[in-house]
C-alpha cells in the first residue's frame, strides 16, 4: 500500500480536498431519490385504498392493520434481498444492479396503480422490495466516488436526498390520488380510467421518474468497480464467506447505524400519531394539513442543514463527536412529547408554549439527522476490504430495513397501550424510548474517535482474505 493510501481517513487540514465528481454524484443521488419516493408515495392514500378493498368487511378498525402491513412490506422484502444484490454488485458491477433495481421499481409502481385486490396490492409492494437492491449499492458507489478528503461532503448529500423524497413522495400521493374526485372540472374527471383506477396517476408519475432515472443511469453513469476476470480456463476464486464480512469493527458500526435508524423510524411514526390524537388522549389534536406542513418543514430544514452545515461541523467536532451529539438529541425529542401533552391538557388547546416546544423538537430533529452521515462513514471505513464494499453495505442495509419495519409497529402499539391504560401517567412510551436512547449512547462507546487505525486494519484484513483465496 502506498504512503498516500495510508493517509488518515479524517481530514487533517494538510491534504488538499479532492473535488467531487458532481455529474456522477448527481445521477447517483437521482437514483437514490427513487427509494424514498416509491416507499412513501402511498402514505396519503393507503388507508382509503384499504377501506375500498373487500378485505376489511366494512370494519374501519381493521384499516390500520392492513395499511400498516402494506407500508411495511417494502422494507421487509427489501431486507430479504438487499444483501444478495449488494454482494452480487461486487462481482458483476454496480451498474447492472442499479438498472435492475430501477426496472423493478418502475414495474412495481405500475402494478400498484393498477391493483384492484388486496392480493395484487401485496404482490406489487413485495415486488418493489424484492427487486430493489439499490440503496446498498448506492452507498458502495458513494464510497468509491469519494476519498478521505471529501467523504464527509459526499455522504452528507445522502440524507438530504432521503429528506427530499420524504417530502416529495407524500406530496405526489396526496395531490394526484383520486384526481377525478379532487379536481372535478379537470381533464381527469372526464376520463373514466382515472375513476376506475383512482391511485394510478401518482403511481404512474413515480414510475415515470424511475424509468427516467434508468435511462440516465444507462447512458451516463460510469462503473466504479474494476472487474478482474481470471485467465482463460482458470478457476474462479471462491467468494469470501459471510464470516469474512462480519468482523468486530463492522458489527459495532452496523449496530450503531441500526440503533439510530430504529429510533428515527419510531420517532417518525410517533410524531403524526401524537400530533393528530385528541388532547384528552395525550396528543395535540392538530389537523392533517398542519401535521403535513410541520413534518415537511422538518424535512426541508434538515436537508438544508445537511447540505451546508454538516461538513464544517464534522471537521470541528470529529466523526464520533457529531455522531454522539446526534444520538443524544433523541433524549430531548422524546422528552418533549409528554411536556407538550401536559401543556396542552392544562389549557385545553395549543398555546405558544406548545408551539415553542414543537419548534424545539424540530431543531433537535435537524441536528439528529447528521448522525446518518456519520453512520455511513463508519460503515464504509469498517469494510474488511474495498472489494467487499458491496457486501458490507448490503449487510448494513439489511439490518436497517429490518429495524425500519419493526420501529413503527412497535412505537404505535406502545402509544396505544400507554394511552389506553394510562401507563406512567401516559408517558410510558416516551420513557421507553428515552431508555433505548441511553442504551444507544452506551453502544457508541466503542466507536473510534479517529478512523486512522482502520486503514492499517483494513490492509491486514485484505491480506488475510487474499491469503485465504490463494490457499483455497
UniProtKB/TrEMBL annotation:
Keywords, ordered alphabetically: Membrane, Transmembrane, Transmembrane helix, Transport
Molecular-function GO terms, alphabetical: transmembrane transporter activity
Transmembrane spans: 20-43, 63-85, 97-115, 121-142, 154-177, 197-221, 242-263, 283-305, 317-340, 352-379, 423-444
Subcellular location: Membrane
Keyword Plastid attached: no
SUPFAM superfamilies listed in its UniProt record: MFS general substrate transporter
Any GO CC annotation of this UniProt entry: membrane
Domain Major facilitator superfamily (MFS) profile: 24-451
Keyword Glycosyltransferase: no
Cross-referenced InterPro entries: MFS (IPR011701), MFS_dom (IPR020846), MFS_trans_sf (IPR036259)
Membrane-related topology note: Multi-pass membrane protein
Pfam families: MFS_1
Top-level division of the source organism's lineage: Eukaryota
First-listed, main subcellular location of the protein, grouped into a coarse class: membrane
Name this polypeptide is given: Member of major facilitator superfamily multidrug-resistance, DHA1 sub-family
Organism, as annotated: Mycena belliarum
Lineage per the UniProt record: Eukaryota, Fungi, Dikarya, Basidiomycota, Agaricomycotina
Amino acid at each position: 500500500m502506498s504512503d498516500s493510501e495510508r493517509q488518515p481517513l479524517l481530514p487533517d487540514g494538510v491534504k488538499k480536498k479532492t473535488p467531487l465528481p458532481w455529474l456522477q454524484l448527481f445521477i447517483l443521488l437521482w437514483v437514490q431519490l427513487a427509494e424514498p419516493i416509491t416507499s412513501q408515495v402511498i402514505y396519503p392514500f393507503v388507508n382509503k385504498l384499504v377501506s375500498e378493498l373487500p378485505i376489511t368487511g366494512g370494519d374501519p378498525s381493521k384499516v390500520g392493520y392492513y395499511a400498516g402491513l402494506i407500508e411495511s412490506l417494502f422494507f421487509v422484502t427489501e431486507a430479504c434481498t438487499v444483501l444478495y444484490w449488494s454482494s452480487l454488485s461486487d462481482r458483476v458491477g454496480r451498474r447492472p444492479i442499479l438498472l435492475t433495481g430501477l426496472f423493478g421499481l418502475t414495474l412495481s409502481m405500475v402494478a400498484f396503480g393498477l391493483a384492484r385486490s388486496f392480493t395484487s396490492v401485496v404482490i406489487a409492494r413485495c415486488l418493489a422490495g424484492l427487486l430493489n437492491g439499490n440503496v446498498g449499492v448506492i452507498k458502495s458507489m458513494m464510497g468509491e466516488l469519494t476519498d478521505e478528503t471529501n467523504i464527509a461532503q459526499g455522504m452528507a448529500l445522502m440524507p438530504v436526498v432521503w429528506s427530499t423524497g420524504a417530502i416529495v413522495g407524500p406530496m405526489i400521493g396526496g395531490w394526484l390520488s383520486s384526481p377525478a374526485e379532487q379536481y372535478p372540472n379537470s381533464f381527469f374527471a372526464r376520463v373514466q380510467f382515472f375513476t376506475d383506477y383512482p391511485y394510478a396517476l401518482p403511481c404512474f408519475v413515480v414510475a415515470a421518474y424511475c424509468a427516467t432515472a434508468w435511462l440516465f443511469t444507462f447512458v451516463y453513469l460510469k462503473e466504479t468497480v474494476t472487474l478482474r476476470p481470471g485467465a482463460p480456463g482458470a478457476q474462479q476464486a471462491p467468494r469470501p464467506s459471510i464470516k469474512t464480512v462480519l468482523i468486530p469493527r463492522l458489527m459495532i458500526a452496523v449496530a450503531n447505524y441500526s440503533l439510530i435508524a430504529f429510533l428515527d423510524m419510531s420517532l417518525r411514526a410517533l410524531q403524526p400519531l401524537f400530533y393528530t390524537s385528541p388532547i384528552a388522549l395525550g396528543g395535540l389534536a392538530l389537523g392533517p394539513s398542519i401535521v403535513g406542513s410541520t413534518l415537511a418543514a422538518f424535512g426541508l430544514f434538515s436537508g438544508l442543514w445537511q447540505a451546508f452545515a454538516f461538513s464544517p461541523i464534522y471537521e470541528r467536532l470529529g466523526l464520533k463527536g457529531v455522531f454522539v451529539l446526534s444520538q443524544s438529541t433523541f433524549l430531548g425529542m422524546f422528552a418533549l412529547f409528554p411536556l407538550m401533552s401536559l401543556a396542552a391538557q392544562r389549557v385545553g388547546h395549543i398555546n405558544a408554549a406548545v408551539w415553542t416546544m414543537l419548534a424545539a423538537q424540530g431543531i433537535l430533529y435537524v441536528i439528529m439527522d447528521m448522525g446518518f452521515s456519520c453512520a455511513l462513514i463508519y460503515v464504509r471505513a469498517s469494510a474488511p476490504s474495498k472489494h467487499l464494499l458491496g457486501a458490507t453495505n448490503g449487510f448494513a442495509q439489511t439490518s436497517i430495513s429490518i429495524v425500519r419495519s419493526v420501529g413503527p409497529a412497535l412505537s404505535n402499539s406502545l402509544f396505544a397501550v400507554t394511552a389506553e391504560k394510562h401507563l406512567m401517567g401516559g408517558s410510558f412510551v416516551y420513557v421507553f424510548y428515552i431508555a433505548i436512547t441511553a442504551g444507544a449512547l452506551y453502544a457508541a462507546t466503542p466507536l473510534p474517535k479517529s478512523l486512522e487505525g482502520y486503514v492499517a486494519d483494513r490492509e491486514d484484513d485484505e491480506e488475510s482474505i487474499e491469503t485465504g483465496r490463494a490457499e483455497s
